Amino acid sequence: MKVSRRTLIKAGALAGAAAALSGCTAQPMSSTTAGQAPDTRTFRTACPRNCFDTCGQIATVQNGVLRKVDGDPLHGYTQGRLCLKGYTYVHRNYSPDRIKYPMIQEPRGSGNWRRISWDEALTIIASKILELKQRYGSTLPVALNKYSGNFGILHYAVEGMFQSIGYHTYALGTPCWPAGIDATNYDFGAFVMDDPETMAQSRYIIIWGANPAWNGVHQMDFIRQAKESGAKVVVIDPINTATASQADLFIQIKPATDGALALGMARWIIDNNLHDKAYLNSYVKGWPEFEAYLKKEVTLEWASEVTGVPVEAIVELASGYATIRPSMIWIGYGMQRHTNGGQNVRAIDALGAITGQIGTVGGGVLYGHLATWGFNYHVQSYGPPAGSVGLPDGKGGYTNRTVNMNNFAAEIQALTDPPVKMLWIACRNPGSQDPDAGDIRRAFAGMELVVVADQFMNHSAQMADIVLPVTTHFENWDVNVSYWHRWVSINEKAVEPLFEARSDLQIAWALSRKLNELSPGSCTFPTEGDEEEWVGKEFNDGIYQLFGIRDWRELKERPAKALMPAAIWEEKKFSTPSGKFEIWSDLAAGNGLPPMPTYVPEMQPPAGYPIRFLTPHAQHSLHSQFQNLDYMMQTNPEPLLEIHPRLAEQRGIKDGDMVRVYNDLGEVRLKARLTRTVPVDTVVAYEAWFKDSDFNVNNTVHPIPADMGKVMTGNDGIAFHDNFVEIERV
Ligand SMILES: Nc1nc2c(c(=O)[nH]1)N[C@H]1C(S)=C(S)[C@@H](COP(=O)(O)OP(=O)(O)OC[C@H]3O[C@@H](n4cnc5c(=O)[nH]c(N)nc54)[C@H](O)[C@@H]3O)O[C@H]1N2
Ligand SMILES: Nc1nc2c(c(=O)[nH]1)N[C@H]1C(S)=C(S)[C@@H](COP(=O)(O)OP(=O)(O)OC[C@H]3O[C@@H](n4cnc5c(=O)[nH]c(N)nc54)[C@H](O)[C@@H]3O)O[C@H]1N2
Ligand SMILES: [Mo]
């Protein structure tokens, strides 16, 4: 690797950061004062985790050692601050538990790991790929599962490398947000949204099934700004979350019934003549039909019965939303992880149209966007080698074989012609993040070779034959954007990789080198390159125009914000087939869904398992990341099951007892914590990977699909929260 160019951030900016942080960091700020330590350099990095905030960071490096990570004061969304995970990245970077070298486990699952060289590891892997190709006549027996461990654009090199090897089996879809994406697309015709910073200008904010106090901490700043200007904040959630505790009104809704609440609100709004008739006539398709449905089928009493929300609360919510304007709704990802999740999102979207607020600043309905992701994906631009064979594409050529990421274990085991024999896992931990963890274990066990590229020995790595050590984002170049805010950040390489870690891009170059060495022409991916230059290859004129920059290197001086209207639909020209906001969607109907957001009943508990088991996202972990680190283990040493005292009493469980949570699929054992923040018929454990523990909430989760997602993401979402169990003291 050629020595990277480095940027020295101005001392003034750092002083600003220090002021903004005012003692929030563990490390003394004096080390960054200009002139004191000539070997001190700072770099712009970006947190690449799958999180709303995608924070701009300043990494301080002394003598080649990462000393301190601060928020980038020039990043307008994260504004110089980080979350606890962000501030403690130094410890993660230097964690003694990082995977240091390529290793092989013999036999698989034994824990008997042996260090091998990169060359040995790549030889085993490349030989297997070539052998499978010869045995089956294609590379379809090789499967890739990659998702969100690192969302940096250069990390799409993993997909790129696979494309370059040939047609393969590919986990398509996302476990995260697909139902809501399709819903958004049916209603608006595109996956874009208002600038979330405009929430500060809203007067009434509904946080509907999201928990930003834990999962998107920077948005809480904009919410606080709104509150300081007199805004009211409502939280709708089955759990009295940290976000709910800061709200003016908390509505504890029965899970998966949000559509009924939105419909009840809509009914009250039209009964009180607060709907925007001019807007509905001009910009909305299907209003007469929907109004007729509301008048015929929906009453406040019905909505109250279905949702468990008292009629007075529905009235307070509907009148607040319709009269205190502009009012904004944030639809969380948690609430759409249900069998009717997409349909419920559509019912909520409709409120913004009925009150005529979509397209006004501070009045949107926010879910997520991909408007800033228009990079070249140069890392994915190398096609399969000449003569590659795959699945017939129906046009005389070939294509990859896809399996549903949300039913990965079952689908890869079911494939026969040819079977899947090798797995490559990167930026992904199906061993703890996928439903039906038991079936994932069976699927892994059936492989001839499992390769996991990761930083830590997580549940998936423990089931691998070969682990490959990957870099942290301080050790590689990248560029990062968010699915929530509108900023782009460069990720400069700040320190050299520890031990033998390589980035996913460097691994792709090296594997291509090895494949071509063993079988010339077997991989089209370049065999070497310069990571920093490869960042540049991702930019195009469209991206430059969007961010108002002329050269990507400008991002070394400051992050940039996309130049888009604050309220994205200000012209009320929607991207749907009709050009209107579509309460009535022929596309939805064509896909076998109700054309309008009429109520689709929630899933009922199956016989024998009456208790809902919610497994949302944890405060101090990010999925299977961070909680395993020694300092997180010290603060939060073990998982807890939150149980309402009444349910605990019924089951003879006391605070601190060990509890078995089980259903037909599997079980989880953990300590009971009695709390009135959860509903009586629901238990809650936050998903996370604890060090040296086989705790896994997904042992009990069936891969039940959500109602939407296929159109925009290739496969439907997953109803993680329609998970039912029984509990007992052990
Ligand atoms: N029960 C239940 N299950 C859930 C959810 C839930 O709410 N409940 N939420 C779902 C959601 S929303 C999501 S998005 C998924 C997330 O699922 P994943 O994307 O699998 O989650 P992570 O744990 O963030 O990341 C996976 C791995 O990537 C590794 N990694 C980090 N950086 C790199 C890198 O640069 N290169 C490589 N090769 N690896 C890297 C991390 O160390 C980690 O082991 O989980 C889903 N699973
Ligand atoms: N600290 C931290 N931050 C994260 C993550 C993390 O793991 N940890 N994960 C990141 C990722 S990948 C994602 S997808 C986002 C997720 O961000 P959020 O959408 O905020 O996340 P969740 O925790 O999945 O769910 C939010 C809330 O939805 C509620 N909920 C569940 N079912 C229903 C329902 O039927 N109706 C209603 N109204 N509410 C319901 C849950 O009780 C939970 O409090 O966060 C991102 N940020
Ligand atoms: Mo997610």
UniProtKB/TrEMBL annotation:
The keyword Ribosomal protein does not apply. It holds the Pfam family Molydop_binding. Keywords: Iron, Iron-sulfur, Metal-binding, Molybdenum, Oxidoreductase, Signal. Residues 1-26 form the signal peptide. The keyword Ribonucleoprotein does not apply. It comes from Symbiobacterium terraclitae. This is Anaerobic selenocysteine-containing dehydrogenase. It comes from the Bacteria. SMART domains: Molybdop_Fe4S4. Its cofactor is Mo-bis(molybdopterin guanine dinucleotide). PANTHER family: OXIDOREDUCTASE YYAE-RELATED, TRIMETHYLAMINE-N-OXIDE REDUCTASE. Belongs to the prokaryotic molybdopterin-containing oxidoreductase family. Residues 40-97 form the 4Fe-4S Mo/W bis-MGD-type domain.
